[in-house]
Design brief:
The protein is mainly alpha-helical. The protein is built from nine helices and no strands. The radius of gyration is 18 Å and the shape is elongated.
Amino acid sequence: METADTKERILEASQALVQVRGFNAFSYRDLAESVGIRTASIHYYFPRKDDLALSLVRRYHEGFRQILRQIESREVRSEGRLASYLNLFSSLSEDGLRLCLFGVFSADAASLSEEVLMEIRAFCDTNVDWVSKVLKAGQKEGAFSFSGSPLELARGIFALMEGELLVRRALRAPGPPPGIPPVVRALLSCRGDGPFAATDHIP
């Protein structure tokens, strides 16, 4: 018997399949078996697979924004905010198997609708804009020292973390210790090297 949270269960199971297999590597039959429902029930909520993709990205994006707000309310200093943000990627795949939905859907971009692609771009913009603001604030605080545009550097850091997930998956490697990775620390000329707790997780 279906319950009121059937749609949420479908989305949770879909996200798990996407992050491990890829969006085009599973069918509604696979999804139905994972959730324990009929494929007709999935079609009721998501008539087309593209509808499922759009709901997944929007849900993921909103969850990410909520985490960023939590980081802002908890961390006062820019270095702590950046470390907490980077910890999200470290905690995403402790066994080196899962990818961020942004990376998966970017790889499958050729098969997705423009509406889904717009949401993927919006997710990227959210990350880059947020990191850019943290970098600007950190530069004023004296925590970071770098040349060039904060926006371009933020885009590079986001790309670096997404790429790190791919490398980690290929090597089946666990995530690094929490904190600011050495390569990012070198880019920003960070002086501190204190540990940071990985308290947030990508939804």
